[in-house]
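Subject: sequence -> structure tokens, single chain

Hey, anyone have a minute? Need the predicted structure for the following. Not urgent.
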Amino acid sequence: MYQHVMPILAARGFDVLAVDLLGYGRSDPRPEIWSMADWAGSVAEVAASLGFDDALVVGGHSGSCVAVELAISSPNLVSRLVLDGCPVLTPQLRATFKAMQGQSRPVPDAAGTHEALVFRTVRTTYEHYLPGFEVTPESIERLWPAMIDYLETDFVSSAPISADYELEPRLALVRQPLSLLTADTDTLSGSFDHVCALRPEAGRHRFAGHHPLHETGRALEYVLALESVIQ
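Reply:
Had a minute. Here:
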């Protein structure tokens, strides 16, 4: 998600580290018993091993929860926090996430076929994050790497871990300067005003339309917004 943003940040003087959380991307599988705090601990180990000791930490969606735990448990590492979408879960969404705890893989369709399972799941994910998304000869090129990741990570999901996590009380424990981001169509935009009310001193920015991280041509816009909220 950040591959188009990272070179711009680097060109503007940042040392940039993007971590595949345990169980995602090219990382190792994670244990069955896992938590946001465990993720934060592993990120702290990575940062220490690479010599990062004064970091601006950016987390998105579930990554925001990991970033909050990192700020609380490793205050000397995190100098500032940017939360890009805060998952303050409704009771209905929490129940949905909990129901996924015993389901390690997506189920086949009504016809019982797995033939298009991965493609359909990834396409649905894009439709979820980008309202109005349609598969075209151009947009389908974005689906292939996501499908590869999805298969290589064995259909991993953070939903069950998110279901057991309460962000609000943890957010109150963050002592570092804090900034908040969202976008008009982001799936967590509905909680933005609520989180801003919890931390009224936080810097904030709302992107018009879709989130720039999902539109590669808007990478500079994301970087400029990031710089503006951390000044």
